[in-house]
Specification:
The structure is a homotetramer. In chain A, strands 1, 2, 3, 4, 5 and 6 form a 6-stranded mixed beta sheet that branches. Chain A is 20% helix and 33% strand. The first copy, chain A, has a single domain, classed as Hotdog Thioesterase (Thiol Ester Dehydrase, Chain A, Roll), CATH 3.10.129.10. The first copy, chain A, is elongated and about 45 Å long. By secondary structure, the first copy, chain A, is of the alpha+beta class. Chains in contact: A-B, A-C, A-D, B-C, B-D, C-D. At the A-B interface, helix 1 and strand 1 of A face helix 1 and strand 1 of B.
Chain lengths: 150, 150, 150, 150
């Protein structure tokens, strides 16, 4: 991906709000790689509602910079699950973040269980070390595997 | 403020990214009330760079819903400071969030001390109880006054 | 309204794309003044789909500038109708534009007649002189009243 | 490119404002193919200010749809030039548009001549038939080659 001109602001770098759109692109690609197009998930009547988001802006991104997004499901706890994100430009990691989601049945407007294919996917994940667990980078954290208690 | 149609997404509610633009509006109004237009701050050569953001989406906001933003500086620690936000619609608080900022001198691209007028403003603040300290709502927290150690 | 920081780009002024969101705000307020909330129109099963848009950027708008939006229905022709817009800041008109819309029944996904209340509203309009008729400002045009042939 | 979820609105399709951001991506890629990164143009002190934009939305684009953008400079007239755009999804052309630009020297804030490399590029263009010349598709138009009178 490249930073679009419309995503910059008068500071000359990507506006802080642009990152959540990029995270959204990242998790939709991640789901696609798991074989589950979000368009299908959505049109199938389920939404993955964002209930919480956290972003650590380590370095600004200027217009036209190319970067990659890594996204992975890093934890499932009851009816919610968490995606972790890393943005990298040529110099390395420039942004980290997490979003926590609830699965909602649109017709009944009720929370539903996280789909089994996502639970399975996160069980098989071991290369991602949860960065912030929705806590700031300054927090004390011990390295530990993703939470799966669903 | 009202939720704009362009701020909704195919779920029929405000997209999760729209909130950071609203927080930005909120803190610029807050600075204006303190007598410091951000346009002046910015054109004076200083930027307040966002280094971290946290959002708790408690209830979704649908198109055309009117809501208010409360923003207040809730803590200053060295060269960074934190704004807290609460969005309310007719039914009460629907979103909480925080953003942490560093003051940067644009010409020298270096962090500079938080301006004295902002330190003063936060010292006088006592009605805001820090909601998340950039931690999730589920974290254990004791209620305490804003941090000022600058 | 004020230009939001997130609406500016690295040129230091409002990004060209921000204007269409403002036009959208303008026409929704216009409909509200006519007694027809677009939220009601939309949830009533009809959408006013944009089929064409034209913008003349006369002067750039910088961050935090206050401006007003004037919007009026300036013509109805068969199943489509046209809104005209003028944005003004302290120095006068800075942007003009038009959007042409089709009324669509969402359930059947078919074009439907423009609602009678909108036809009536535009008949009563006489102060707006169509600026561009979706043609560039440089086009030869004679001043004439809004088209109503619905 | 794919339609991002954040680019859709409550109608379930891409919001009308998203297209101008896509056009911007398209013309920046076009300039890059001509060997002129817009980041370089911009940091070299020149901006290509949008003075006019026109969009014909032929068919809506739903979330996650893949599409391509074709952009070409279709005319130069004095100090301004015009880009034409065509968006295509799997079913063919779904959007057409044009943007007219002025070259501005940022330091002196004055219009400057269109760069010779762009004049040259448009002279060599012959496959693009100007779609709307910033007039609506319904206008009478005869097919003619791009204007170059700079």
């Amino acid at each position: 991906m490249r930073v679009r001109f419309s995503e910059t602001d008068a500071m000359g770098v990507a506006n802080n709000g642009a990152y959540l759109a990029w995270f959204e692109v990242g998790r939709i690609e991640y789901l696609r790689e798991l074989g589950h197009s979000y368009a299908d998930v959505h049109s199938g009547g389920m939404d993955m509602v964002v209930v919480e988001a956290h972003i650590s802006y380590l370095r600004p991104l200027t217009f036209d910079t190319t970067f990659t997004i890594e996204c992975e499901c890093v934890g499932i706890r009851g009816a919610t699950f968490t995606f972790g994100y890393e943005l990298r430009d040529a110099e390395g990691v420039c942004t980290r973040g997490e979003t926590r989601h609830a699965c909602v049945d649109r017709a009944r407007m009720r929370a539903v269980r996280v789909p089994e294919w996502l639970v399975q996917a996160v069980r098989e994940t071991d290369r991602y070390e949860p960065v912030s667990q929705l806590r700031p980078p300054s927090s004390e954290r011990s390295s530990r595997p993703p939470d799966v208690d669903a």
